[in-house]
């Protein structure tokens, strides 16, 4: 067995029973997932309206909202906000990866650190992410220890899991404190309030959204939901199907920091960021939304459950899909974002992904459709 297969198998054995346990203990999550599917379909039916409403809401709360069609446009906006010679901390964001934000900012002379532990490991290891919620899932504990020893030191062959986490915690703490800019994704965005909702367990998102003077959230238009109530439902469902429920933290950001402690007049900034920017990226999503088969892929809430019930992911793991889009959902998204039909060709249509998907996305059907598209290209 290759080392990544050992690591992925360990992760599957830890995650799969845990998700079933969460759903048994908190059965209301299953009902919330059904409701969320209908809510997200409602948004897709009227996406232009919701994009417009979201941008207006962000402006109303003192932030700046941008809609961009391409990764190049996203990079340009982020580049203008960040400038050069800054320290940037990033919370794990698939869309930031999709848009190549980290490399771009480093090329511009900034010090940029991924702060999600898995994302940090693949940054220092110069590797692509291998799973949508656990980007370093392909690394065994032994490989993680070697990587940390080589790149930042402070661990050895006797280090425990706890020791490895502690070493990264020590290393990143100073970066959080000195960071000028925090960049995150979004698990959901409320159109009515312009609020970005983020769910996490490490505390790195909380640091990245509050400690620096500027917070930039970058996400796809598919993350918009009508209300803050819906945004909370999405983070709860995502966390439960990812296998960690209750999540340690749910972060809501509605504009720059503010206070109303003097005569109840609301002013900003207060202790947190002075600036809040939300960038909504299209990059193939709106085109997919017009396609009656592909649009269902836009319902994906990135819980990563489909990976663990897929025989192809077990065999191909890290090598399946265009990073960060791996696994069954990644095979759909590699096509939506990059027009790449190849990942879909590996699907064996076992159907396990559809059975366990909280959004009941008919992934095998969509991948079959992409296979047809591939044949059309010949
Ligand atoms: S396709 Fe479904 S199971 Fe897979 S990551 Fe998306 S929501 Fe989760």
From TrEMBL:
GO terms for molecular function: 4 iron, 4 sulfur cluster binding; oxidoreductase activity. It comes from the Archaea. Pfam families: Fer4_8 (PF13183), LUD_dom (PF02589). Residues 290-321 form the 4Fe-4S ferredoxin-type domain. GO terms for biological process: lactate metabolic process. Gene3D superfamilies: Alpha-helical ferredoxin, NagB/RpiA/CoA transferase-like. Keywords: 4Fe-4S, Electron transport, Iron, Iron-sulfur, Metal-binding, Repeat, Transport. InterPro entries: 4Fe4S_Fe-S-bd, 4Fe4S_Fe_S_CS, FTHF_cligase-like_sf, Helical_ferredxn, LUD_dom, LutB/LldF, NagB/RpiA_transferase-like. This is (Fe-S)-binding protein. It comes from Acidianus brierleyi.
């Amino acid at each position: 067995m290759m080392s990544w297969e050992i690591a992925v198998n360990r992760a599957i054995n830890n995650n799969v029973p845990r998700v079933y346990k969460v759903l048994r203990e908190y059965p209301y999550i299953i009902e919330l997932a059904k409701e969320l599917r209908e809510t997200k379909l409602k948004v897709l039916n009227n996406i232009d309206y919701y994009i417009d409403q979201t941008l207006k809401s962000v402006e109303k709360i003192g932030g700046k909202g941008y809609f961009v069609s391409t990764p190049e446009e996203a990079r340009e906006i982020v580049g203008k906000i960040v400038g050069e010679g800054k320290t940037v901390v990033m919370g794990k964001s698939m869309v930031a990866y999709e848009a190549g934000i980290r490399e771009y900012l480093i090329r511009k002379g900034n010090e940029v650190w991924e702060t999600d532990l898995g994302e940090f490991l693949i940054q220092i290891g110069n590797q692509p992410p291998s799973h949508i919620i656990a980007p370093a899932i392909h690394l065994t504990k032994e490989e993680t220890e070697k990587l940390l020893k080589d790149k930042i030191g402070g661990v050895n062959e006797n280090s425990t899991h706890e020791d490895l986490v502690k070493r990264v915690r020590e290393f990143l703490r100073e970066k959080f404190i000195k960071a000028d800019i925090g960049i995150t994704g979004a698990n959901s965005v409320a159109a009515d309030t312009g609020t970005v909702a983020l769910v996490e367990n490490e505390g790195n998102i909380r640091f990245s959204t509050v400690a620096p003077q500027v917070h930039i959230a970058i996400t796809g238009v598919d993350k918009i939901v009508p209300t803050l109530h819906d945004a909370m439902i999405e983070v709860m469902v995502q966390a439960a199907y990812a296998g960690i429920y209750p999540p340690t933290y749910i972060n809501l950001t509605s504009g720059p920091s503010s206070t109303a402690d003097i005569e109840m007049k609301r002013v900003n900034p207060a202790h947190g960021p002075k600036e809040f920017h939300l960038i909504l990226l299209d990059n193939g999503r709106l085109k997919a939304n017009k396609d009656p088969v592909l649009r269902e892929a836009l319902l994906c809430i990135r819980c990563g459950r489909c990976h663990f019930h897929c025989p192809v992911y077990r065999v191909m793991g890290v090598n399946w899909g265009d990073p960060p889009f791996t696994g069954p959902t990644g095979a759909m998204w590699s096509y939506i974002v990059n027009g790449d039909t190849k990942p879909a060709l590996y699907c064996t249509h076992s159907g396990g992904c559809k059975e366990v998907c909280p959004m009941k996305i008919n992934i095998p059907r969509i991948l079959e459709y992409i296979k047809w598209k591939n044949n059309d290209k010949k």
